[in-house]
């Protein structure tokens, strides 16, 4: 080739290599973590996110913040994926995972300055993560989880979040009651919990409905607004004149033929009401249209009917009342129908909602959320979703651990004690992992108004003397205390997932030394 350079990249491509690539990736990851750090803990702050169209989201939920941010840097997007994975797997701890991943990158940056090879850092981080998982297992609270434990877990997940005029303590009671309603021998049927937000009224009007709420109004204004002890049918069909399946042309030559055609059509329409009435149906949920004349006839017969019900809602109603979805009114069987203690239509402002309560198979439940503004309702919904997820995780995925940063202090101390037995430079990476984990109690301390360095020293001292220490928010500041005595817990699954996902993302970023991008 005569020493001529070989060009393999497009002229429009850019390339960043070596330390510049590492520095760029680490800086991006740290920036994302820093963006959500102030939201951590019971005294965490909110973020206002405004998109290009002017739509506003106000929240301190880590996953929501990162999803709403317009992030372009690929390494920063990997931190966003950490939060999304955390949300998908356990439903909470997204800020914890993102902050930990950012601090692991910050520690790796210092190790690079000490000429520690990226592979060594990766090996050390993975070894430390293994030790961390063992530490989590050791401090998991033993014994059966009672309602008090579950309420504490739910309350911890919601403390500091915007919940309007209803406190986290009352919401925690509702959440635990909700989860218990869908607990089976196989575990928690999380999909059977629906959330129905409704703007208007105070947040304290939030309640648990043992059944399903659907955003539907009666097909005819003259239909009854409520039916007690109702026989319910779920119909996957149109209640109207059936159309021919082939193209056909009818030639009507006299008035008798016209009258006969009209009578046949009217007879078909009357037949729907007659068949439903004869079968004893009180309430019908129809996934297709109801012709106006049919709706009027149903109203005269005292049947409450809803049309164009969505497939998801129809499925939920059928499960709640124990009904089968019916595609034809021929040969109706009483076993096809369900039962509800009450079906009622209630009006909220301009909206009408149908409440189907006390179904024969009332495993499906609904949290009916209220709030004075859309922002309040949205944040309340996010808070309750997190609380439902953490209670489910506590019951289904391995119990609870002390909260308030106590678990992170225990992890850091355990990792440091085992680092002494690790040879070579990998020991430095293991120790750096311990330092990174402590960013979480430091952040909690800062967000509660404490000096983070003094708080960390006090935490270590208290842990050495009593074996457990966390940051407990008190008034306008915080103090070092035993989180178990204070009733502050987190699901063990949240901590395990945060350690795993943060470590995986940080080590992946650390190994990158070349960025090739198309401009």
Q: What is the beta-strand fraction?
A: 15-25%
Question: What is the CATH domain class of the largest domain?
Answer: Mainly Alpha
Number of domains: 2
Count of helix runs: 17
Question: Biggest sheet, open or closed, and with what strands and sense?
Answer: 7 strands, mixed
**Structural class based on helices, strands and sheet pairing:** alpha+beta
CATH architecture designation of the largest domain: Orthogonal Bundle
Q: What is the β-strand count? A: 20
- Quaternary status: single chain
3D shape: elongated
Roughly how many Å is the radius of gyration?
Answer: 30 Å
Which consecutive residue ranges, at least 5 long each, have pLDDT under 50? none
The CATH topology of the largest domain turns out to be GROEL, domain 1
Q: Name the CATH superfamily classification of the largest domain.
A: GroEL-like equatorial domain
Average of the residue pLDDT scores: 83
Helix content: 40-55%
N→C terminal distance: 29 Å
């Amino acid at each position: 080739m005569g020493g001529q350079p070989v060009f393999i990249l497009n002229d429009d491509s850019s390339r960043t290599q070596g330390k510049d690539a590492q520095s760029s990736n680490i800086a991006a990851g740290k920036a994302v973590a820093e963006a959500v750090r102030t939201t951590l803990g019971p005294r965490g702050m909110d973020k206002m996110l405004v998109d290009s169209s002017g739509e506003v989201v106000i929240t301190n939920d880590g996953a929501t913040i990162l999803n709403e941010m317009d992030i372009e840097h690929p390494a920063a997007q990997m931190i966003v994926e950490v939060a999304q994975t955390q949300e998908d797997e356990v439903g909470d701890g997204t800020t914890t995972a993102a902050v930990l991943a950012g601090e692991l990158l910050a520690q790796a940056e210092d190790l690079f300055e000490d000429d520690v090879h990226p592979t060594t850092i990766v090996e050390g981080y993975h070894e430390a993560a293994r030790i961390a998982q063992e530490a989590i297992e050791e401090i998991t609270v033993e014994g059966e989880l009672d309602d008090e434990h579950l309420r504490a877990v739910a309350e911890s997940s919601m403390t500091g979040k915007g919940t309007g005029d209803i406190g986290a303590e009352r919401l925690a009671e509702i959440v635990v009651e909700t989860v218990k309603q869908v607990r089976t021998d196989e575990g928690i049927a999380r999909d059977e919990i629906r959330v129905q937000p409704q703007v208007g009224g105070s947040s304290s009007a939030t309640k648990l409905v043992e059944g399903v709420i659907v955003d539907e109004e009666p097909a005819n204004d003259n239909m009854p607004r409520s039916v007690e002890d109702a026989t319910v049918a779920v119909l996957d069909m149109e209640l109207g004149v059936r159309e021919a399946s082939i193209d056909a042309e009818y030639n009507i030559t006299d008035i008798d033929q016209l009258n006969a055609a009209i009578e046949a059509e009217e007879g078909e329409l009357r037949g729907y009401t007659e068949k439903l009435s004869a079968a004893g149906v009180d309430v019908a949920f129809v996934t297709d249209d109801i012709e106006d004349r049919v709706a009027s006839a149903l109203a005269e017969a005292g049947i409450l009917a809803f049309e164009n019900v969505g497939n998801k809602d129809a499925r939920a109603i059928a499960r709640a009342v124990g009904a089968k979805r019916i595609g034809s009114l021929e040969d109706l069987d009483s076993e096809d129908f369900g039962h509800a203690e009450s079906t009622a239509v209630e009006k909220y402002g301009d909206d009408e909602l149908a409440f189907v309560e006390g179904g024969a198979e009332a495993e499906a439940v609904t949290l009916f959320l209220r709030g004075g503004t859309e922002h309040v309702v949205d944040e309340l919904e996010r808070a309750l979703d997190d609380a439902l997820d953490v209670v489910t995780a506590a019951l289904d995925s391995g119990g609870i651990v002390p909260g308030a940063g106590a678990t992170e202090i225990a992890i850091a101390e355990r990792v440091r004690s085992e680092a002494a037995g690790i040879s070579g430079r990998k020991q430095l990476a293991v120790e750096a992992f311990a330092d990174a984990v402590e960013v979480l109690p430091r952040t909690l301390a800062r967000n509660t108004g404490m000096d983070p360095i003094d708080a960390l020293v006090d935490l270590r001292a208290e842990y050495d003397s009593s074996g457990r220490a966390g940051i407990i928010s008190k008034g306008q500041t915080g103090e070092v205390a035993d989180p178990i005595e204070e009733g502050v817990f987190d699901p063990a699954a949240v901590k395990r997932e945060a350690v795993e996902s943060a470590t995986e993302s940080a080590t992946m970023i650390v190994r990158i030394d070349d960025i090739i991008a198309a401009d």
